[in-house]
Amino acid sequence: MKLDSMYQEIILDHYRNPHGKGLRDGDAEVHHVNPTCGDEITLRVKLDGAVVEDVSYESQGCSISQASASVLNDLVVGKTVGEAQQVQEAFLELMQSKGQSEGDEEILEDAVAFAGVSKYPARVKCALLGWMAWKDATAKALAGHPEITTD
Amino acid sequence: MTYSHLTGLLDTDAIRKDFPVLSRVLHDGKPLVYLDNAATSQKPRQVLEALNAYYEQHNSNVHRGVHVLAEEATALYEGARDKVAAFINAPSRNEVIFTKNASESLNLVANMLGWADEPYRVDADSEIVITEMEHHSNIVPWQLLAQRTGAKLKWFGLTDEGRLDLSNIDELITEKTKIVSVTLVSNLLGTVNPVETIVRKAQSVGALVAIDASQAAPHAALDVQALEADFVAFTGHKMLAPTGIGVLWGRQELLEDLPPFLGGGEMIETVTMGSSTYAPAPHKFEAGTPPIAQAIGLGAAIDYLSAIGMDKVAAHEHAITAYAIERLAEVPDLRIIGPRTAVDRGAAISFTLGDIHPHDVGQVLDEQGIAVRVGHHCARPVCLRYGIPATTRASFYLYSTPGEVDALIDGLHHVRNFFA
Prior knowledge:
The structure holds two protein chains of two kinds. Chain A has helices at residues 3-6, 9-16, 63-76, 81-95, 105-108, 121-143, and strands at 28-34, 39-48, 51-60. By secondary structure, chain A is α+β, with helices and mostly antiparallel strands. Chain B has helices at residues 12-16, 45-58, 68-87, 102-115, 140-149, 169-172, 195-205, 224-227, 252-257, 292-308, 310-328, 358-367, 380-385, 402-419, and strands at 25-26, 30-31, 33-34, 96-99, 127-131, 152-156, 177-183, 208-212, 231-235, 246-250, 268-271, 276-278, 334-337, 348-353, 370-371, 373-375, 391-395. The interface between A and B is medium-sized, with 19 and 17 residues.
């Protein structure tokens, strides 16, 4: 069934047991909304020098947006900001691929499960909600710490 | 399954043959079950043929032309105005203004009042009254007007049952109220509102009343004289017509007194480089080339609905809605947001399904060929009122069948199993 390509078991697992959910201490906080469906996320980024120490969030929304935030937490925490930004860009590229890309599992790990979602234009925004919030929060956190370089 | 206990059903086998899209088959052989009628209706062959005939035989700009096509196009366009006037029992065809949609109609009213002279002018001493169950199209234009004039925006709240809370009507509608704008039928809750109570109160303080009939005009007889309101707005595409055509009905003396909003071609009497005078209503409010084909399509849609009879359409939808409410009660964890009976209720039913997000509900239903709408339905304050982020909404029309209700129920059981 076509639906299984969107709702991969790995996505449903993250949806049922989200990783890193809950708000904790952070250097910057953002609130993003998907106006078409009302999905919301409040997300904080905590940096330790150039390393992403924590990504914490409170959110409400569909299984895709919730699972995506959970995978985001898995993938970027512990990486340098530069590495994490590469993952974010790879995920964005995958979601914009209209089902034409399978994603690079080396970089994206569990996030390749979202390849099927890219075939559903109405759901791409759901998958990107947490990631765009992270990008925005990270930019804000970096602006507060000009000494950190991400090269 | 037999449906002999349902009374007032239309001959949907015959009606559905007029709607080509309803015979579509989706996703590996699933027949389309179209339950998104509150968002937009499907179009019958008769409307599509009217559009084609216009473009193939009569296409021309309307008014002033002296050639054959211009005269034919004008007669068709103005003929559509006559059909709308008869459909809503307007005292005069000159009270029917064609717009792009109901949003434009309501924005037009707000802008007329913002630029009006006394006694209609909305200013810093004025109050505007709406309700918490309005579509954003009947909220945002009034917020804009309030922000630009300094007027105060007030609103009726909602009861837990999804009805308007009229208990504080005397505090809400006062001598300061210039305009009360309220929906006849909620697009999210399905509630049919007791607008006569509101109209009477508004009249007693000299306030104008605008009615958003977008979810009413497609589904039951609409009589603007019986409503006793001052303005009535609705849109064509929810009542079998194409997109891009809406209606604002307004009382003639108001349309004569109130200023135009958009300026341009067709809305003038004379123009010099210094100033202009304006055409009489309705043309004063129809600047530029209008949506000609779309208006003609609306006329054809009205012919189609009138041939069936709006009372019969209403009876059919009432039977389908009552059946749907009864069957939805069988689905565990399903909570209807809005009235839980078919009394004073339209054919849109919103619900939540446990903690499964409506996006996920809609996606799994789609896989079974069932089209519903998910989200806040452009009525986000209603979702906030009931403490939910969004709903799933099934909405019916004259071609909806009890079998489609059954398909929805089966689909919802499947959704629950999928996310269990």
